[in-house]
Write a structure and sequence with these properties.
This protein is α+β, with helices and mostly antiparallel strands. It starts with 14 loop residues before the first helix and ends in a 15-residue tail after the last helix. Helix 1 packs across helix 10 and helix 8 packs antiparallel against helix 10. A 4-stranded antiparallel sheet has the order 2-3-1-4. It has 2 domains: about 190 residues, Up-down Bundle (Multidrug efflux transporter AcrB transmembrane fold), CATH 1.20.1640; about 80 residues, Alpha-Beta Plaits. About 60% of the residues lie in helices and about 10% in strands. The chain has 12 helices and 4 strands; from the N terminus they run H-H-E-H-E-E-H-E-H-H-H-H-H-H-H-H.
């Protein structure tokens, strides 16, 4: 299926604009992360998370005012559909992990809501995670990301070239930073589902980059006299249809999951949407730009060792006058026999 016929877009022409746009988004995201931080889920921050279903509509402000007397820094969000009247309450502090004190925070939340006279309610679910478990999950998630990047660098450096490996790893780090920036912009909490989506985006972006680099390697053999920029542009245009199809179908699936997957999968779907878009963008602009910065814009290395073009069979090349050997040099010298004197008759 061909979407683009005879595509001839100069993508590398916009590489400096793409680098500037990427830096703007990353810097803005880092500013938000260092000033406001990224909301962390109960798995990483530790604490108690309770989902409560009321029998009548209740606003977030009413629930917050009821809990402010007993707790500080609570996170209160609407949960599920509006018709369910469910509220998610997360308290950062958690009790002990064993014994009767395990449910002390949940009981305190229930008591505070009953005293506020918000109507009847039921506890749908409760999740309690200690800060120790949260720190352990944070460490494991960080190591999983770092080891995956190291494996990508080693594989591509062995399979292709070091410039390709650096381009792919820089593009992957770019995708991670942009995704974290958008999570901070829209205040999505960092949960285990989001970590799974980030690792999925890492593999997806690397696969997309390798497809382009594989075509670049094939074209380097047949276009040895062309500049590297031209070879990369041709390779991106040749794989453009495949890139659009793969990214488009994955994006549609992520959007459907975001709209109909419910509150639990919304963070995962949002991360996938951002990751698919920025992964495709970085494979075309960022990874290719890093390769051109690394290797320059001149002819490829194979062109330096390429043989001279063959001469047509009907036009034999004639040596110049300086190359033609003299006739005396071609014919060996003969010894001259002494001439005999003629006898007188």
């Amino acid at each position: 299926m061909h979407i683009f016929k005879n595509a001839d877009y100069n993508f590398l022409r916009w590489r400096w604009h793409a680098v500037a746009l990427s830096w703007a988004v990353i810097i803005a995201g880092l500013v938000v992360i260092f000033t406001k931080g990224i909301p962390r889920s109960i798995e990483f921050a530790g604490g108690t998370s309770t989902v409560i279903a009321f029998d009548q509509p209740v606003t977030i402000e009413q629930v917050r005012s009821a809990l402010d007397k007993s707790f500080k820094e609570t996170v209160i969000q609407s949960y599920g559909t509006p018709a369910q009247h469910q509220v998610l309450i997360r308290v950062p502090q958690s009790g002990a992990e064993s014994g009767d004190s395990l449910s002390q925070t949940k009981n305190a939340v229930t008591t505070a809501l009953q005293q506020a006279n918000l109507g009847k309610f039921d506890i749908v679910g409760t999740q309690i995670v200690s800060p120790t478990v949260g720190r352990e999950l944070t460490t494991k998630g960080t190591w999983a990301t770092v080891l995956s990047l190291a494996g990508i660098l080693l594989y591509i450096a062995f399979r292709y070239q070091m410039s390709f490996a650096v381009g792919a790893v820089v593009a992957t780090i770019h995708d991670l930073l942009v995704t974290l920036a958008f999570l901070a912009f829209f205040r999505y909490e960092l949960s285990l589902n989001v970590i799974a989506a980030i690792l999925t985006v890492t593999g997806y972006s690397t696969n997309d980059t390798i497809v382009i680099f594989d075509r670049v390697r094939e074209n380097l053999r047949g276009m040895r006299r062309d500049g590297l920029n031209h070879v990369i542009n041709v390779s991106i245009n040749q794989t453009l249809g495949r890139t659009v199809l793969t990214a488009g179908l994955t994006l549609l699936s992520a959007i459907a999951l975001f709209l109909f997957g419910g509150e639990v999968l919304r963070g995962f779907a949002f991360t996938m949407i951002v990751g698919v878009i920025t992964g495709t963008y970085s494979s075309v602009f960022v990874a290719a730009a890093i390769v051109t910065f690394w290797r320059g814009q001149g002819p490829t290395k194979a062109a330096a060792h390429a043989p001279a073009p063959a001469v047509a069979s009907g036009a034999a090349q004639q040596p110049t006058r300086a190359q033609q050997p003299t006739r005396a040099a071609q014919q060996p010298t003969r010894k001259q026999k002494p001439q005999r004197k003629a006898k007188a008759s």
